[in-house]
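Handoff note, outgoing to incoming analyst
You'll be picking up this chain. Sequence as last confirmed:
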Amino acid sequence: MHILKNLFIVVFLSFLFSIKGEAQTTEQSDFSGTKNRAILITSDDNGKTWSSPVDVTSTIIPAGYHIVGFGPGAGLQMSGKQFKERLVLPTRVVDSERKSAHNVAIYSDNHGRTWTMGGKGDTGDEFQIAESPAGTLVYNARIPGARMVAYSADGGGTWSKAVKEPALPGVSKGCQASVLGQGRQLYFSGIRGKAETPEYDERVGLALYKSCDGGKTWNDGIQLYDEASGYSCMSFLPDGRMAIIFETADTPGFTRKSLPGIKPLKRPAGWMRLDLLILPIINLIFMKNFFYTMSIVMSLLVFTACSDDSVNDFSPVPYPDEMEQEEPTPDPTPDPDDPTPAPDADPVWKVTSTTTVFNSKVSTDVSYRVPAVAVTKAGTILVFCETRYGTWMDKSGRTDIFMKRSTDKGATWTEKNITEQAVSSKLSYMDPTVVVDQTTGKIFLFTSLWDAVGKPSAQQGYNNRAIMYTSEDDGVTWTRKDLTNEVQIGIYSGFTRMIGSFGPGSGIQMTNEMYKDRLIVPMRSFKVDADKGTVSNGGNTAMYSDDHGVTWQTGQPNKSGEWTVTEAPDGALIGNIRYNGYRQNYYSTDGGAKWPGFSDYPASQLPTPEKGCAGSVIVKDNWLYYCGAKGITATSSHDDRGILYLAKAKFFDGHSHTFNAADHMVLYDKAAGYTCMALMPDGDLVIVAELGDLPGFTKTSIRPEGWIRLDLFILSSK
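Most recent structure output, in case you need it:
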């Protein structure tokens, strides 16, 4: 049951209680004043008219305490059986000696006629309260750099010890945030923040997070607004939509200082306003622009209902760690006459074949590196790689892109040099990345062309070219096109973003109805300062086409690093990024136009070498797979790239997922590096990977036979 009946009450709810007092500030507890008062204003006609303010300080605040503030934000009405219809208000109090502040719940069991103050929590700053499953209350409080949570199983009478919640964002100086419950689901709206500047503070990036287990775990969140963001408050409308009101501005952050020629504390126009968002999008209001609107529209894909909202038993329980765990829904019983496992059943993969496709030749000093693999519409396997002459190092001389083609699932192969440079060339074709249009059958191979030999590394980006090869005959013949001048990444903050390289590995073709058949190619950009003549990493983005590869667009860059992308069952794009010592995950809910949210995978879930290594991701049925090098201890003779493994994670609640170390499947226990994956028409999984015969790849300039080769694994789950 919700107290609110229409949209207008949402705005006023944050003022249901207010404080009058000397020296009262907006965000910091006032421990010095003794005249703070609690004021109650009520409406009996759905918010059309309001009562005169009534001073209720003496009736709701017991002797020995002073009111500091409420929330700020919203209270709630409980729905659990034991405390059904109890009104609960988050309140901050301080003892009469002004020595300590506490968060408490003030509650009413008679529809607001009288109020009682519950027990003290051990955190005393701005907070909100929500009802989680089984009638448990959870409060979420602000502290510098983090969020604190505590639980109450007795309707706010007592609270557990408050602990930090690492899955939710907190800025260094703290900021109010909002938490809202609905059945099994909890939602959190708050800001992610960024580094302060002399002009702007850290309050940036309003984000929305969701939990389907009462706050035990949270998804990675979606970013609703990229610029200045502050306090927020949420509520559900009767039709199930969510309303979020928040502080915002059109600037990169809220102004911290007076502008030149302006007296202190005077703010520029548009410095702060309150915007209202409605989710899902039906009657969207207060939208900034079309792209802002689309980002909110696509957030619907993330925040779909949890798998089971029919929770009728709200009997009280202790705190979440003590809650009885639900029995998991069993996997469907397979039909004994059907050998194909059910889509959601836990797949068990077996290696059915292993083939060496490319093997580096020490005698002629040719190194094969950075593989890419694709399966065509006809079921042909195409394996691409860099062919480096004279040296195995990046961008140090002539590098061609070679391809091998198999029409019999890897039993036999034909070879082709795609780029076909002259022997005297010193150009480097790097990072092959392939995508197949399964509608038209057309194959697209992307590679970055580096004229890097003899040039300072800082200048390399100026000479980079984006090259596209296409085949319309199942990979037999290829046509070259330079895309550099056609694809614009954009100019941001005085810097020009230009193409750096692709993937490496593979792109995808989307299947979600909104972006059906869109081709997605992961790429990396440079950030160029033309005035200073410098080039640096400019962030990852996606290059995409909605006309089967005739024209291409690029999205907005974010985190930088070698990466691959795949599509979750809910239509969200998931990017998996190389980083030092662990993998990073970020996503797009608007078909690759923006990549607002990212998080780190724990090293235990997806281990990787200390200095990082390219890996790959792919989705089959309702499972996400990652393949990469696990990492080993480096020695003076070899590096730490070793142990090829396959990890899997089942999707839940949209594109949320968690890898389990117990599910790792080791494919090769010696030197292992870059990988790429594809699916056969029969559902088999194809993996190509850099491998070697030593524990890790050699560090010496003279390499033994078998130093690096590209092997193809075919796995079946049937």
